[in-house]
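Key result, reporting period 2: structure in, sequence out.
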């Protein structure tokens, strides 16, 4: 497949991403293969591209992904082949202390793999044509396909099957999280 690969951090206008053919494996247990139909460009991607956020290189950025599920790994129950989905920038592991405390947005295992640029098992499903590892920043959506853990993939209702739904994956959730924090929407006391 084709992907826009970040080989070296720099100002985007001085060092563009390189669109090239890369290898992609099949999704493993709990993972989902998404055919990317649209993807947002978030400022966090720019931070990575410009070297302000540490990440393993080379890598594929892009974490506001709208697309259709083309294949699922074993034991995936959240989505089915053919579902239109959005992939988010957080993939709660469901097992760490924070996940068990209802703070999935602060998943400790997700925080650990983010700078490594891998999925939970310490690898990605991508490689360059010479076989060397190709990392991802929160999904690797700047490509024709992306493989994401199912906890980071949500099925969209019919009315949201459109390219602009990609922003649900980060821009909308980030703003919602900020509002929730500010207004105490999550707090029962706020109803008093
Ligand atoms: Zn973002
Ligand atoms: Zn967790």
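The corresponding designed sequence is given below.
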């Amino acid at each position: 497949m084709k992907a826009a690969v970040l080989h070296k951090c720099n100002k985007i206008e001085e060092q563009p991403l390189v669109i090239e053919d890369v290898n992609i494996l099949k999704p493993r247990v709990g993972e989902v293969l998404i055919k990317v139909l649209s993807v947002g460009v978030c400022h966090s991607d720019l931070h990575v591209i410009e070297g302000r956020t540490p990440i393993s290189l080379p890598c594929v950025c892009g974490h506001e992904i709208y697309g259709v599920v083309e294949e699922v790994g074993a034991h995936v129950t959240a989505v089915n082949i053919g579902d239109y989905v959005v992939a988010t920038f957080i993939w709660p592991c469901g097992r760490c202390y924070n996940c068990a405390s209802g703070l999935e947005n602060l998943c400790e295992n997700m925080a650990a793999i983010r700078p490594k640029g891998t999925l939970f098992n310490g690898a990605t499903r991508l490689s360059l044509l010479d076989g060397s590892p190709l990392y991802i920043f929160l999904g690797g959506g700047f490509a024709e396909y992306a493989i994401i853990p199912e906890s980071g993939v949500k099925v969209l209702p019919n009315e949201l099957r459109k390219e602009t739904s990609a922003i649900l994956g980060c821009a909308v959730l980030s703003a919602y999280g900020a509002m929730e924090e500010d207004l105490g929407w999550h707090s029962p006391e706020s109803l008093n």
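Residues 78 and 180 are 25 Å apart (CA to CA). Residues 42, 44, 63, 89, 170 surround zinc ion (ligand 1) (CB under 6 Å). This case is discussed further under Risks and Mitigation.
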